[in-house]
């Protein structure tokens, strides 16, 4: 579904990742881990094609309309005047176009998705008035509407309450079970153990493939201390 071939990525003139190889199968959840500044967001940008490789390449079989990306919350500007329902329905845009009216089957699917994510009571609420966790649920709702086959999430559980994390993990596991390939940047060992099938560990420019169990025995504490300041990297 997605292959990285000797991929090297830079930010400005700083080499961030060198010679990364990997294969991401349909139906698997891969956690991207590593200390602050290791290049997790940089790799996500490289996979999504917003950052061009300085060497190697990203080969992706998933059409652009079926790739979805949830950037870090800090990188999101949700002041755009849009309701929860409008955001969820906008998941149709890549295949349907943004100007055509939605059909009744699409509206029904949107309603089912909002119900699944516990968003029904919030459907007319503007995005700017949502809490962090409500916003993450709405954004995940849009990717469900899009029927994404490849989903990248950058720290989706930051500032999200435990009940919402449970819902998000359940929905992500169901998406993987239906064949979606998911890549998720994580810092928390417990979330990693609950969610990931495989782990790509980034450190000092290099990438190592490992398993959630190996991570747990190597690092029982949180994987990295959160020390981000506003205006983060994604
Ligand atoms: N737009 C940018 N311009 C210049 N350097 C950047 C830019 N974005 C990131 N960097 C640098 O690239 C390196 C990798 O950053 P990146 O954000 O990918 O790390 P990360 O692993 O996602 O970190 P964190 O855990 O803090 O989110 C860091 O040294 C960072 O300072």
Automatic annotation (TrEMBL):
Keyword NAD in annotation: no
Gene Ontology molecular function terms on file: ATP binding
Keyword terms, alphabetized: ATP-binding, Nucleotide-binding, Transport
InterPro entries in alphabetical order: AAA+_ATPase, ABC_transporter-like_ATP-bd, ABC_transporter-like_CS, Metal_Ion_Import_ABC, P-loop_NTPase
SUPFAM superfamilies: P-loop containing nucleoside triphosphate hydrolases
SMART domains associated with the record: AAA
Listed Low complexity bias regions: 212-224
Region (Disordered): 211-234
PROSITE patterns hit by this protein: ABC_TRANSPORTER_1, ABC_TRANSPORTER_2
Record has Lipid metabolism as a keyword: no
ABC transporter domain sequence ranges: 2-229
Signal peptide residue numbers: none
Pfam families, sorted: ABC_tran
Descriptive protein name: ABC transporter ATP-binding protein
Native organism: Salinicola rhizosphaerae
């Amino acid at each position: 579904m997605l292959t990285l071939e000797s991929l090297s990525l830079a930010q400005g003139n700083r080499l961030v990742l060198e010679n990364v190889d990997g294969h991401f199968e349909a139906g698997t959840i891969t956690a991207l881990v590593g200390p602050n500044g290791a290049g997790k967001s940089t790799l996500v940008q490289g996979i999504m094609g917003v950052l061009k490789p300085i060497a190697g390449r990203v080969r992706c079989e998933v059409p652009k309309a079926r790739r979805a990306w949830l950037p870090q919350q800090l990188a999101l500007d949700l002041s755009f005047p849009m309701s929860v329902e409008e955001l969820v329905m906008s998941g149709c845009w890549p295949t349907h176009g943004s100007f055509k009216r939605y059909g009744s089957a699409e509206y029904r699917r949107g309603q089912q998705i909002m119900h699944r994510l516990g968003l029904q009571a919030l459907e007319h609420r503007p995005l700017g008035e949502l809490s962090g966790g409500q916003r993450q649920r709405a954004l995940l709702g849009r990717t469900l509407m899009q029927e994404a086959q490849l989903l990248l999430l950058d720290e989706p559980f930051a500032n999200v309450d435990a009940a919402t994390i449970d819902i998000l993990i359940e929905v992500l596991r169901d998406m993987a079970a239906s064949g979606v390939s998911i890549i998720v940047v994580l810092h928390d060992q417990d979330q990693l153990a609950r969610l990931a099938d495989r782990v790509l560990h980034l450190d000092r420019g290099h990438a190592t493939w490992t398993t959630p169990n190996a991570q747990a025995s190597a690092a029982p504490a949180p994987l990295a201390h959160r020390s981000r300041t506003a205006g983060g990297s994604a």
